Amino acid sequence: GENVEQHPSTLSVQEGDSAVIKCTYSDSASNYFPWYKQELGKRPQLIIDIRSNVGEKKDQRIAVTLNKTAKHFSLHITETQPEDSAVYFCAGGGSTLGRLYFGRGTQLTVWP
Amino acid sequence: KAGVTQTPRYLIKTRGQQVTLSCSPISGHRSVSWYQQTPGQGLQFLFEYFSETQRNKGNFPGRFSGRQFSNSRSEMNVSTLELGDSALYLCASSLASRTSGGALTYNEQFFGPGTRLTVL
User: Fold this and answer.
1) By the 8 A CB rule, do B44 and B58 touch?
2) Are A85 and A15 in contact (CB under 8 A)?
3) pLDDT tens for the 120 residues of chain B, in order
4) How many A×B Cβ pairs under 8 Å?
5) Vertex B46, ends B45 and B52: CA angle to 5°?
6) Strand A45-51 and strand A32-38: pairing?
7) Alpha-carbon distance A21 to A58, whole Å?
């Protein structure tokens, strides 16, 4: 099956700085890569996703890039704010499969 | 539209007991996936149902089972509970659909709030 690895496990940044979280995957058949944000005690929320026919996608302060050749994808958050503090999970899977393979998560802390 | 709902939100059981958790997907979503979340193992896939059929199964023992009803609501059952089953159980719904060729295509997965199970 697919194996998704995520780095770093913790990330601390100053408010206003950028944050980057990186993930790699093993199965070249994977073609769908979502990112979820989970605040303490809450459900994971989909914040952005990318499909393998696209190299980059942006939504306001959040962007995701995908390198299919290297099998890695990254989440970029610019102008970070304290409310961005949460655990972020990357995931990978096939669009014909009803399952996602998750990374272990990154605890992002944004200091004011 | 209302989001994914799960009941109950919290459960405390003792070893050896069994438990049933329920998940109601977003209206119109026919795919329901279940995940177990623990600090040590992260988010792990349990199984996925579409149109009352289990289509995918993760690497969990047979004590973990599930089903889906005709209204797309899903239940999962854990029998003979062990201490290690303590976790947050999350379900996710997806607007899956069939292509003209008959293949299933899944869209985004949206999570419910989870059921926090504690086994004593």
Assistant:
1) yes
2) no
3) 689 999 999 999 999 999 999 999 999 999 999 999 999 889 999 999 999 999 989 999 999 999 999 999 999 999 999 999 999 999 999 988 777 887 777 778 999 999 999 999
4) 56
5) 120
6) antiparallel
7) 15
DSSP per-residue codes, B60-103: --TTEEEEE-TTS-EEEEE-S--GGG-EEEEEEEE--EE-TTS-
pLDDT digits (tens, 9 = 90+) for A29-51: 888 999 999 999 999 999 999 99
A95 inside 8 A of chain B by CB? yes
Question: Which residue type sits at B41?
Answer: Q
Torsion angle in degrees (nearest 10) through CA of A1, A65, B104, B38: 50
Tokens of A45: 């929320």
Q: Which of A43, A49, A98 sits opposite B56 (nearest CB)?
A: A98
